[in-house]
């Protein structure tokens, strides 16, 4: 009979260190931005004086040189447009923004030379398709910091795309809006490339920092960390200074606050601009300085934990401890999750309260002084049609006018099925606020039951109109509406509307409804732009005390939501459990930008291979 000997259990052999495929540029180069073509896996790398196209295994396919060149940051317009009297020196071109325009198969590469002009490069071979530089709209940013510009492309199937640009202005607000929406024309050499989506003498698709702001905070600027689109909105995550009074003190000190900015994609006047402070807290420690962010989905497993749907958007963010100085972030940092719907719900609550006349606009940097919210009262939402195509919410914004007495109405209006209001266009040269005739033609039932029409005229103070007509949905029978003058966006098209306390029976007509503020509300020209005062706090899932986290990426694999973070020392880490805890898995660092491009999962059996499209944001 055989015998056996029980051997002591051997400890598992240590895991071999994983090797990384690397790419290194010229010694003097710094890598600034990285994007990956999701269709091909090709990597585009924005560096100092160069743009690289790499294969998925980091082989150089094409190189495009962008600098250096003779320049001076004080030359505005740049010397390539007109002679500059400032001394010129050989200046590096730091890549500040890198975006893939999928619809037109081109790369948008913006640099620091010549006040931030951009090149449009063909994806296949980086051939220059265009480089607009002769208009002020072509100068996107004069700041030399590589991380000072962020762009989000909004794409349309049958129209030209648009580009939302957000940038620090470096004390030059007269030259650069801090946020704007630009045209992305199909033709890369078109004269309208990067022109504002809308611009006239009164309104434009932009927001500038007022000069008065710099008298309060001399070094004020807005630093954009991340941007994305979701649903009907475009979002930017920012750091910005503000003056606050410490508890128990009457003096103010400057601190930096992290804020999320939201805009409607279709808002040409930026009346939908809202910003809300964000932060994170764990065990009594405040993490307030945003370092990085990444948008991902919840996935089925994490969705159950958070009480959301698997397809809901989550923001994975990295904050560092402290709030006093932006450039002196402490090493203590936290990885936190925000549920985007909760942020939107907070914004909706704030919009609703402000339109009830509660509180102030809470946007000190833009308004300088507190401005009270205005009650919408009996404001009605007017939806117009141009050539039978409904205008978007932001294209039919209300312009509140003064109140007036109702004009005489026919004595019997109980059978009104709908009102048709017509406004005459401005005469050439007439002032925008001039008086003009408006005609009210309500169809109604006569004694014989047939529809008749009564014409009434009165003079209404109005904004410039284009003479369109609109049919409105009657107000419900039990509704009481104060007599109010209203108009719509004076630039596109519009009518002046005066309503009084009439009862209507037919609700089939479309176009007029009581103002409601729902999930897709895009603002009016009142109570805008708007700030939210109460901070939205994220859910902390991991903290690091020594090696500050500086970048983050997340994605869903087999219903699990996975996150990776990059650190100050160049290491790459993966939380072992997204629900929290201190345990982390760590790569054999340091891992550079190109290392991350080819990084394989730290636990392939559980996680799978991280493809080129799953890159960490550049530190």
Automatic annotation (TrEMBL):
<feature type="region of interest" description="Disordered">
    <location>
        <begin position="401"/>
        <end position="437"/>
    </location>
</feature>
<dbReference type="GO" id="GO:0030334">
    <property type="term" value="P:regulation of cell migration"/>
</dbReference>
<dbReference type="InterPro" id="IPR031148">
    <property type="entry name" value="Plexin"/>
</dbReference>
<feature type="domain" description="Sema">
    <location>
        <begin position="4"/>
        <end position="373"/>
    </location>
</feature>
<keyword id="KW-0325">Glycoprotein</keyword>
<dbReference type="GO" id="GO:0017154">
    <property type="term" value="F:semaphorin receptor activity"/>
</dbReference>
<dbReference type="Pfam" id="PF01403">
    <property type="entry name" value="Sema"/>
</dbReference>
<protein>
    <recommendedName>
        <fullName>Sema domain-containing protein</fullName>
    </recommendedName>
</protein>
<dbReference type="GO" id="GO:0002116">
    <property type="term" value="C:semaphorin receptor complex"/>
</dbReference>
<dbReference type="InterPro" id="IPR001627">
    <property type="entry name" value="Semap_dom"/>
</dbReference>
<dbReference type="GO" id="GO:0005886">
    <property type="term" value="C:plasma membrane"/>
</dbReference>
<dbReference type="InterPro" id="IPR015943">
    <property type="entry name" value="WD40/YVTN_repeat-like_dom_sf"/>
</dbReference>
<dbReference type="InterPro" id="IPR036352">
    <property type="entry name" value="Semap_dom_sf"/>
</dbReference>
């Amino acid at each position: 009979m055989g015998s056996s000997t029980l051997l002591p259990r051997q400890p598992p052999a240590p895991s071999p260190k994983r090797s990384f495929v690397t790419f290194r540029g010229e010694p003097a180069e710094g890598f600034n931005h990285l994007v990956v073509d999701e269709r091909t896996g090709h990597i585009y790398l924005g560096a100092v004086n160069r743009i690289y196209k790499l294969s998925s295994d980091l082989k150089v396919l094409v190189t495009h040189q962008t600098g250096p060149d003779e320049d001076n940051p004080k030359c505005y317009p740049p010397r390539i447009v007109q002679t500059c009297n400032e001394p010129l020196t050989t200046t590096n071109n730091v890549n500040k923004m890198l975006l893939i325009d999928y619809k037109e198969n081109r790369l948008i590469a913006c640099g620091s030379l010549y006040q931030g002009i951009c090149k449009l490069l063909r994806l296949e071979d980086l051939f220059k398709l265009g480089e607009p530089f002769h208009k002020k709209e072509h100068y996107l940013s004069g700041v030399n910091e590589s991380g000072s510009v962020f762009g989000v492309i909004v794409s349309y199937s049958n129209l030209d795309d648009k580009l939302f640009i957000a940038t620090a202005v470096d004390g030059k607000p007269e030259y650069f809006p801090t946020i704007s929406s630009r045209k992305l024309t199909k033709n890369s050499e078109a004269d309208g490339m990067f022109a504002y989506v809308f611009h006239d003498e009164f309104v434009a698709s932009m927001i500038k920092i007022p000069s008065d702001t710099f008298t309060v905070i001399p070094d004020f600027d807005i630093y954009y960390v991340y941007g994305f689109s979701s649903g009907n909105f475009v979002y930017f995550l920012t750091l910005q200074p503000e003056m606050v009074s410490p508890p128990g003190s009457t003096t103010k000190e400057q601190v930096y606050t992290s804020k999320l900015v939201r805009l409607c994609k279709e808002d040409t006047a930026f009346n939908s601009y809202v910003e809300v402070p964000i932060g994170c807290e764990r065990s009594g420690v405040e993490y307030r300085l945003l370092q990085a962010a990444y948008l991902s989905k919840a996935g089925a497993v994490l969705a159950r934990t958070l009480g959301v749907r698997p397809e809901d958007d989550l923001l994975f963010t990295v904050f560092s401890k402290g709030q006093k100085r932006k450039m002196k972030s402490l090493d203590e940092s936290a990885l936190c999750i925000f549920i985007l719907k909760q942020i939107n719900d907070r914004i909706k609550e704030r919009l609703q309260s402000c339109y009830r006349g509660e509180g102030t606009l809470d946007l000190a940097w833009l308004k300088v002084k507190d401005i009270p919210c205005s009650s919408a009262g009996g404001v009605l939402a007017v939806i117009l049609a141009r050539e039978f195509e409904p205008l978007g919410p932001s294209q039919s914004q209300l312009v509140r006018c003064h109140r007036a007495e109702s004009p005489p109405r026919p004595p019997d209006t109980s059978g009104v099925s709908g009102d048709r209001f017509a406004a005459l266009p401005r005469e050439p040269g007439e002032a925008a606020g001039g008086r003009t005739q408006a005609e009210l033609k309500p169809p109604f039932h006569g004694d014989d039951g047939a529809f008749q029409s009564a014409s009434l005229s009165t003079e209404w103070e109005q904004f410039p109109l284009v003479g369109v007509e609109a049919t409105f949905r009657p107000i419900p029978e039990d509704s009481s509406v104060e007599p109010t003058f209203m108009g719509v966006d004076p630039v596109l098209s519009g009518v002046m509307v005066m309503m009084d306390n009439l009862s209507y029976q037919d609700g089939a007509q479309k176009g007029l409804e009581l103002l409601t503020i729902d999930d897709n509300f895009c603002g009016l020209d009142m109570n805008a732009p708007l700030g939210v005062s109460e901070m939205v706090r994220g859910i902390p899932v991991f903290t690091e005390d020594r090696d500050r986290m500086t970048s983050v990426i997340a994605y869903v694999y087999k219903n699990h939501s996975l996150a990776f973070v990059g650190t100050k020392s160049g290491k790459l880490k993966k939380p072992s459990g997204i629900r929290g805890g201190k345990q982390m898995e760590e790569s054999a660092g340091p891992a550079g930008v190109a290392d991350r491009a080819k990084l394989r999962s730290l636990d392939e059996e559980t996680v799978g291979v991280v493809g080129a499209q799953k890159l960490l944001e550049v530190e």
